[in-house]
Design goal:
153 residues, mainly beta, Immunoglobulin-like, six-stranded mixed β-sheet, five-stranded antiparallel β-sheet, 41% strand
Length: 153
């Protein structure tokens, strides 16, 4: 199954880039630029709505839902206006047991990156897991994107 995913991921990520909209980011850019003569490092930007770049089922309320032992594909578009190399790292909060990521972190390559999030092997009842991606440049400036995924038994 994982070998199939590795072959399918480039296609899924390519399709996800079509939904990226640089004029409508859903991220919280923490960079600053004082507008003066001296250049300050600007934070990298997640340029697409992370919640629109998830490949998973949705429930009647529009929430992403996966069953235990299933997976969701999460992708994002990011760039750095200063041209710095940028790196990403996924993490997760919520739920009684964590899921896992493949890959969890790396360098942003050619604007679009992503991960496969594997749901936990068991949960007592439907529960919310918040998936977070941090993109950070070499100077430590960062931007954060989040999406909620519900896991059900």
């Amino acid at each position: 199954m994982r070998n199939i995913l590795r072959k399918a991921l480039p296609l899924l990520f390519s399709a996800a880039i079509l939904s990226c909209n640089p004029s409508n980011p859903s991220s919280s850019n923490n960079g600053n630029n004082n507008g003066g003569n001296q250049h300050q490092n600007r934070a990298p930007m997640i340029e697409c709505n992370l919640a629109q770049n998830v490949v998973a089922e949705k429930d009647e309320g529009g929430n992403y839902v996966v069953r235990t032992r299933e997976f969701a594909v999460i992708s994002f578009c990011a760039r750095d206006l200063d041209g710095d190399k940028i790196f990403y790292e996924f993490s997760e909060t919520g739920g009684t047991k964590p899921g896992s990521f493949s890959p969890r972190s790396g360098q942003v390559d050619q604007y679009l990156m992503g991960t496969v999030w594997y749901a936990p092997t068991s949960v007592p009842a439907k529960e919310k897991h918040t998936i977070k991606v941090i993109v950070r440049d070499e100077s430590g400036a960062e931007d954060i994107g989040r999406v909620d995924i519900y896991v059900k038994p």
